[in-house]
Amino acid sequence: MRFVLLLEDNPERVERFRTAVRSLGSDWDIREWRDSTKMIAECEDYFHEAALISLDHDLTPQLKDDPDPGTGLRVANFLAGYFPICPVIIHSSNTDASWSMHNELRFANWRVERVAPIGDDWIPQIWLPTAQNLLSVPTDSTMVRRPSDHSSRMERALLSLEGLAIGDALGEMLSYRFEDAQRRIAEGRLVGGPWFHTDDTEMALSIVEVLRLYGFINQDALARRFSWRYQRDPDRGYGSMTRKQLYALQTGADWRATAATAFGGQGSMGNGGAMRAAPVGAYFADDFGRAAGESKDSCAVTHTHPEGVAGAIAVAVAAAAAWQSRDTPRTGRSRDFFDAVLSHTPVSKVREQIEKAAALPEALSLQDAARVLGNGSLVTAQDTVPFALWCAARNLDSYANALSTAIAGGGDCDTNAAIVGGIVSLATGRESIPADWQNARERFPFDVRD
After folding, report:
1. Domain end: 135, 161, 178, which one?
2. Residues 106 and 189 in one domain
3. Is the pTM of this model over 0.90?
């Protein structure tokens, strides 16, 4: 089936669009939305079958008490963050807004045309010929690699993302009182939402969005997504080198060059590649080797130093191992977890420190573990990942305890908790995440509010 993805709030127009699309052939249909929020949340599921997108701008609520449906410009801004997948028609009488939509998409290299909805027959007489003309030019697409079990993989990736995002937000909120984090979490003494996330979650969102669309880490698409998110919301706590890289991408630089030349040509060994890797491991949780390879690709867009890459691989494999461990007895669970990680993490300081983490005595205190392994204070992969994995391994049966442990260790609290949350949520399931925490977290762009 080939789809026209349609944003249109007028029921009569929708039926006329449906008739016009059916004239293209029996294998054609439309998928329509009447508000921009729902379209943004759902349209990616149809990208692999989308042949054309058509967008109105001005939208009105269907019922008096319905939420604000937004505008077509919101959808155009959203689409501009992706590589072009098909042509777009803008069918709006709002001239200024339609030109804004047109420019947003054109500057992102989408093929786009405008039509004016004038008269009763403009859909068959103006829109349809425009659509046929656009469809006569083949679209180059490299996205179709989604496996048959893509939906279940995405459920895991979204679970890991939620665990990561809540950990990130809690870690950021409690970073200045980390010594008291365990008591505050245990007693429920936390501020009300929304709990805003940092660059950790922003970059993990890009990972999940690329997996959702492509079914693998398309590095070019991921670099574009990183840059697009940074351009629209730069004040999320990005590090100075990441800022330089993402700004360079906005001005046309190649991510291969910006990543390779970081830090005088040695590449970044920072913990940024690791902090966003858990959803990769979740998506490929059935295959440790694939999780390692795809996480390496996700990391290399910004981090090429062997330590940075090793950290990302370790976290992704840890996430996959956590998922595979969810039904296993507690005895030996931590050992199996570390064995899986060490079997795929390349020779590096990261690996050496993970070996130390695996060998630490059970009775060792949190503070002593942080002193031995580091706690992210240096913001490097080797100073962050081993401690995060130690926190996760000790708490594979409790999401809340895992986060409180990660935060109470001090250091880079939000990144430690993001890594731990993205891993442990896969072992414990969404039901283990307190409902008030789920409600308090900042919404994702593909969340649909009731």
Report:
1. 135
2. no
3. no
